Amino acid sequence: MAAPRLLLCPGGRPRAACSARAWYQQPLRPGGPGRKAAGGLGRGSGSIVGQAGGPWSRQEALGLLEAAVVYREGPLVAISKPPGLAVTGSPGQLSVISLLPDLSQRLSLPHELHVVKAAGKDSSGLVLLSGCPGTTRQLHAFFTQLRRAGRPPATYRAVTAGVPAAVEGEIRTGLKLEQVGDLQLVVPVAAPSRRSVERKEVKQTLTHYRVLGAAPGCSLVQLQPMTAFPSQLLVHLTLLLCPALGDHVYSARVGTVLGEPFPLPAGSALPHTQVLGEQLLRRLRLTQELLHRLPLHLHLYQLLLPTASLTAPPPAFFLQTLRLLGLPGGQRVP
C-alpha cells in the first residue's frame, strides 16, 4: 500500500523516533513510584507493585512526562505515559490534557496540542499529540487506510495469566456497553443482530494476536486491534481465557477449576481484585493480599506513521515481570 503524503505544518516532516530517558528510567523517589512493597523483592531487584505510580503531584507528573518524550518533529510529539495517568479527565483531575499547557511551555512545544492516539488510562505507552488539525485529519485518514488494507496501525504488548490455546489468531466479537449493577461495563455479544449493529448498540470488533513467548501459566502476547472500542483488548483477552496481569475489572470473567480456566457469565462476574494461582504468585514474589497494587500489564508499544514507526519501551515493572516469569524480553522487548 502506498502511504499517503503527510502534509505537516511548518517545522519539518517525521523522521525516525529519537531516544529519550523515559519516566521509568529516572531515579526512584523515596516513598513514591517504585517504592519497595512489604513482602516484595530483594535488594536491587525492585518490586512490580507500587512502580506504576500515582497519585502524583502536578509537578511530579510534569517531570515524568517531560522525561518521557520519545518523538518530536514539526507539530507532532509523542510521549510514553505511565499507567494510571488518564489522557483526558474531568475538570480538576490530573491528566495528560490538563498538563499539556505547562508541558508545552517547559519544552517549547506547539500550543493547542491535542490527542491523536493514546494508550488508555490504566495502560502504559504511547500518546501521540499534534499541534496542527490538518495533520491530525491526515493521520486519522492514514490509520483508516491501514486498517482497510489489513495493516494494524497500533501494536500492544500484554503479559497474561494463562497461555492462549493457539500461538496466533484473531478475536472477533460484538461488544457493547451495559449497565451491570452500579457499573458501566463492556460485555461481548457473540452474535449481534444486524439491527443492533446498524443502530450502533453493538460494535463488531477484531483483534489480531500472537504469542511472543510462554512460560508455565503465563505468556507475553502481541495485540493488534483492527477496531476501537473501550476496553476492547482487555475483554478480548478474557475471551482467550488469558486475562492481562493487573486487570482488576474483566479478569473476574475467567474462573478456574483444578487449574483449568473457564468463562464466567459477564453479567454475574462483577469486578474484583484479580486472583492468581499460587505458583504464579510465588514467581512474582507477591501475595494475594498485595495483588490489588499490581498495575495493568498492557502497553502501547508501537504506532505506525506514514514515514516513521514510533516505539516506546515497556516500563520497569513490566520488564521486571518478564524477568520474574521467565518470559522473553526482560531486558528489552524487541
Summarize the structure.
This protein has 334 residues and is an alpha+beta fold.
Largest sheet: 11 strands, mixed
Name the poorly predicted regions. 1-47
Number of helices, where a helix is a run of at least 4 consecutive DSSP H or I residues:
7
Query: What is the percentage of strand-forming residues?
Result: 25-35%
Tell how many strands the DSSP assignment holds. Answer: 13
Helix-strand pattern: HEEHEEHEEEHEEHEEHEEH
Helix content: 10-25%
Rg measurement, Å:
20 Å
Oligomeric state as shown:
single chain
Search tags:
single chain; 334 residues; alpha+beta; eleven-stranded mixed β-sheet; two-stranded antiparallel sheet; 7 helices; globular; disordered N terminus
How are the SSEs placed, and which strands pair?
Blueprint: H1 58-66, E1 69-73, E2 76-81, H2 96-107, E3 114-118, E4 124-130, H3 133-148, E5 154-161, E6 168-180, E7 183-189, H4 194-198, E8 203-215, E9 218-225, H5 232-239, E10 254-257, E11 260-263, H6 278-284, E12 298-305, E13 308-311, H7 316-325
Parallel strand pairs: 4-12
Antiparallel strand pairs: 1-2, 2-4, 3-4, 5-9, 5-12, 6-7, 6-8, 8-9, 10-11, 12-13
Describe the protein in words.
The protein is an alpha+beta fold and 334 residues long. 20% of the residues lie in helices and 28% in strands. It has seven helices and 13 strands. It has helices at 58-66, 96-107, 133-148, 194-198, 232-239, 278-284, 316-325; strands at residues 69-73, 76-81, 114-118, 124-130, 154-161, 168-180, 183-189, 203-215, 218-225, 254-257, 260-263, 298-305, 308-311. Strands 1, 2, 3, 4, 5, 6, 7, 8, 9, 12 and 13 form an eleven-stranded mixed beta sheet that branches. A two-stranded antiparallel ribbon has the order 10-11. The longest helix has 16 residues, at 133-148. The two termini are 25 Å apart.
